Every structure is written in C-alpha cells, then in structure tokens.
Amino acid sequence: MNINGNGMTGKAPVLVVVQLTGGNDFMNTLVPYTSGLYYDSRKTVRITEDRVLTINDELGFHPSAGPLKEMFDTGDVAVVQGIGYEDSNRSHFRAMDIMHTAEPLKISTEGWLARAIKQLDPEGKNVLTGVSFGRGLPRAMAAPGVRVTSVGDLDSYGLMTSVEVQEQRAEELNIFRRFYTPAIGSGATMNYLQQTGDDVLAGIGQLQTVAGKYESTVEYADNAIAKSLRDVARTHIAGLGTRIFYVQHAGYDHHAVEMPAHEKLLDELSCALRDFMDDLREHNASEEVVVYVFTEFGRRVQDNGSGTDHGSGGGAFIIGDQVEGGLYAEYPSLDPTTFANGEDLAHTIDFRGVYATLLEQWMGVDSVDIVNGKYEQLQPFGGA
To answer: Beta strand pairing status for 77-84 and 314-319?
Structure first.
C-alpha cells in the first residue's frame, strides 16, 4: 500500500478529480468493436471498426481520444471498467450526489473528498488543501467544518478587485444553496454555508499571485476543461500545499446528436489531459500527481436513434506517472441476460472500491469512514 504517495520524490501525493457531467457514454469511449451486439444495438450511435483505436482484439478507444490512447500505450492510464453500484440511479442529480457522497442509500451532507481533506488537514490550517476550479462548489468537496477554496478561473480572479471577489464568492455560494437545498434541505445547506461560507474563497489572495509566476511551453486549447487543468497545473507548480483539486467538464448528456457532440468532448478532454501531464513533467511536478476521471453513470446499451439515454456500467480513468496502466475490473458483459434493468450494462466493480483505492493506496487516507465500509480495491499503483 502506497500510503506515502510518491516514494521517488518524497513530495506529498496530490489527487486531481475530473468530473464528466451528464453521464459519459462508456461504450463509445472504450468500444467493444468486435461485438455483434454492440453494432446491433447501436444502429447510428456507434464507432465503426475501421475508426477504433484498438488496444486488444476486443476493445479500442474512440478515435477522438487519441492523446488518451497514447498515454495508455505508454502505461500511464488505468481504465476502470464497469463502475457502478447496486440499483444504479438514473437521475442526474441523485446519481451525481451518490458519487459525490459515496452514499447510495440515503442523503448525506458530507462529500467524500471533504472527508478526505478533514483527514489530510484536520485543523483546517490551509484553505488551499482542497481547491475547486469552475462554477459552483461541488458536493464532493463540501462538509461542515471543512475549509476549501472554490474559484472560477485564475486569470479572471487575478484581475478582480476585492469588491468583485466578494460578489463572486456570493454567487458561488448561491449556486451551492440553490442546487443542494432541494436534496438535503435548507437547514443542512445553510448550516454548511454558515460554517464554511467565509472559507470558500478565503484562499483567493494566495491564488491571485499564481498566474503571474507561471511560465510554460505547453499551449493548452481554448476550452473550459483545458483552462481548468491549466489552472490546476499553475497552482500545483506554485507549491501552495493543495492536496486535492477538482474540475468539471460538462455536456455529456447526449440524448440526441451524440456523435458530433461526444467526439468534440472527448477530443477536448484527451488533449487537455495530455497537455496537463506534459506541463507537470516540464516543471518536474508530475510524479506526485494522479488524475481520476469519472462520470455519474453510463448510457443504455441500445441507442435511441440519435443519442443514448441514461444507463449504468460506466467507466473511469486513473492517470499518472506512478500508475500501472492497463485495463482494470471487467468490461460489462454484453450478454442481454445479464443487463441491469433489462437494458443497461451491469456494473462489475463498486465505485466505492475505486475511491478506497485512491484514498488508501495513493493519498494515505483511511477510507472506511469515507466510503462507509470496506470494498474490493484495485491495484493500479503496483501494490500486492
């Protein structure tokens, strides 16, 4: 168990979580290109065999995920297949909430990463231990008494006046309030905001200096996920003590016109991840970083003519120099008799086991209280 993170540099391990919002179509991300059932079920929303970036005689990446495939080939990407849980929820809000709190059976007021931050910084000494880039504070990072920092992007914050920063903070908290009050109630939501509201952007003074100190030869693309990961790189390279970063890439709810939309998103994501890792390596800051890319659920096996509807049996990626790349868990069975709800891919590994893997083997954090039990773990870091 790698409880100290990176033994090569001695630097504290860092986890970057990338949320693919909307339910990424795992079947079209890692394509079962030799399966007749795949092509029978996907009459229009499918990747033909001649376009697949093959990794073995059964599976291959979407053609727009070329940079991700290249990182896989060099051994830096672990593909976790068939992530899910029993009786998977198809509601975007509830399914993402489950992923954020690691609690499928009841509504929780504590995010899984917030619980990890509590262990990493029990006295809340550093408001930059956990940093989220993007609009709104994710539930995964929120828990009463846990101090985190949430910002839109570094470039705009660096130019803001103190009044504008205060206004932005109010907007961030208002987004959180509107989004989560219907789920956990106004009492729990306000309790969280009252205890931690002043901390959500408390680290902004330190972050405002980051952009001006950063230089890199890596040219990121001009899109949201690339900008967010560039902000993560700049903050990590600045050495401000952040242990957990969170970014989001939206738009994966493809009920219609999936083919061009999914292609664009996977291209953005793959290129951003490649550039991020290249940037860290240029600054000798990659060995201590692991990236976890997840989504709230997979899509249905059968397309709906133009897109795909909410399903289960999704997938995730664990990326980093210290990762032993390859395929982990099992690709969900394409035998219709095994389908969940008669039409979804069944999960093959519980998502809480993947969290436990990251928390214990990489971050050195006890996972039992965070994921509420013990679950089968993977071994992407070469553990026994």
So the answer is: antiparallel
- State what percent of residues in the chain have pLDDT above 70: 84
Q: Could you tell me which CATH class the domain 14-371 is placed in?
A: alpha beta
Distance CA 133, CA 235 (A): 11
DSSP secondary structure code for residue 345 in this structure: P
Please name the residue that has the structure tokens 């880039």. 133
The yes-or-no verdict on residue 171 having pLDDT over 50 is: yes
Q: Which residue has the tokens 């990590």?
A: 236
Query: Structure pTM?
Result: 0.90
CA 315 to chain CA centroid, nearest Å: 11
Neighbour-count burial of 377, counting CB atoms closer than 10 A to its CB (0-12 exposed, 13-18 middle, 19+ buried): buried
Residues 215 and 258 sit within 8 Å (Cβ to Cβ): no
pLDDT at residue number 141: 92
| CB-CB contact of 351 with 318 (8 Å) | no
Q: Tokens at residue 362, please?
A: 């990489």
CA distances from 364 to 3, 107, 139, 324 (A): 4, 27, 22, 18
